[in-house]
Specification:
Oligomer: single chain
Structural class: alpha/beta
Number of strands: 10
Bound molecules: adenosine-2'-5'-diphosphate
Distance between the termini: 37 Å
Number of helices: 11
Shape: globular
Length: about 270
């Protein structure tokens, strides 16, 4: 699979497998195992998804070399609020049963995110994390962080899909050399996006599924999508996107579908 380069030179596979909502136990383990057996080399979990143990089991059972898998997890607000930043990281690597993670993210710009960011910097310098970043940070959060940080986040993971393309924030991140990962790249629970007439028409012209068109659209605008599925055929289809490309007119038509309406959780408790 093709990859992007992070600002510290680390390569990151250009599509990741998302496991938010995959239930701890057989559902999460089988989905991750299926992904690893079918070409995904990049898995995105989080402490709050409550499936790190199953993700770790799938990695073990895949018999792939640990170095060949790019693994991300995230520090949750509750640990931050309690000042348990390092403990949160250690709990995650114990559950995942790995010696290091490739990418560790601050999950939300919860109040007081400077201290945990310094903890991530420290863990990075100790070699326990190959790259560090943030998630759900807006421009003003990134600017505030930059005033105190020694290391600029290498990644910002944010919601982006056809109806909420988040392009302004993406452009800002790319200008700063921050790789952007898209959560809910297919629209999450808003499956209406996958039935949009413009997308259906492009998909039929190219003999691809709508999901494949959307994933390709993310890649062609320099974004790293994290599609999730617990359905084998969809898991396989969602990375079969390297044998075609979208024309400029197609890209423009998809960009024009933006409604600027997030489908995800933008709760006032999490965003300030
Ligand atoms: P399922 O797990 O039943 O396959 P997102 O990645 O934007 O969060 O979207 C994930 C949602 O879209 C999941 O509910 C997933 O359901 C569904 N999904 C994933 N891949 C496809 C696909 N190729 N076609 C249709 N729906 C998909």
């Amino acid at each position: 699979m093709e990859s992007y380069k992070l600002s510290n030179g680390v390569s990151i596979p250009c599509i990741g497998f998302g496991v938010c909502n995959a239930k701890e136990g057989l559902e999460a383990k089988n989905a991750v195992l299926c992904a690893l057996q079918n070409g995904y080399m990049h898995i995105d979990t989080a402490m709050i998804y409550n499936n790190e143990f199953s993700v770790g089991q799938a990695i073990k059972e895949s018999h792939l070399n640990r170095e060949d898998i790019f693994l991300t997890t995230k520090l949750w607000n509750e640990d931050i609020n309690k000042g348990l930043n390092r403990e949160g990281f250690e709990r995650s690597i114990n559950l995942l049963n790995v010696a290091y993670v490739d990418l560790y993210l601050l999950h939300w710009p919860t109040e007081g995110y400077i201290e945990p960011w310094k903890c991530l910097e420290q863990l990075y310098l100790e070699g326990k994390i190959k790259a560090i970043g943030v998630s759900n940070f807006r421009k003003h959060h990134l600017e505030a962080l930059a005033k105190h940080a020694s290391i600029i986040p290498m990644v910002n993971q944010i919601e982006s899909n056809v109806y909420f393309n988040n392009q302004e924030l993406i452009d800002y991140c790319l200008q700063q050399g921050i790789v952007v990962q898209a959560w809910s790249p297919l629209g999450g629970h808003n499956t209406a996006q996958l039935k949009n007439d413009v997308l259906v028409d492009i998909a039929s012209q190219l003999n691809k599924s709508v999901a494949q068109i959307v994933i390709r659209w993310h890649l062609q605008r320099g974004v790293l999508p994290l599609p999730k599925s617990v359905t084998k055929q969809r898991i396989i289809d969602n990375i079969d996107v390297f044998d075609f490309s979208l024309s400029k007119d197609m890209m423009d038509a998809i960009n024009a579908l933006n409604k600027n309406k997030p489908v995800g959780l933008y709760d006032k408790d999490y965003i300030f």
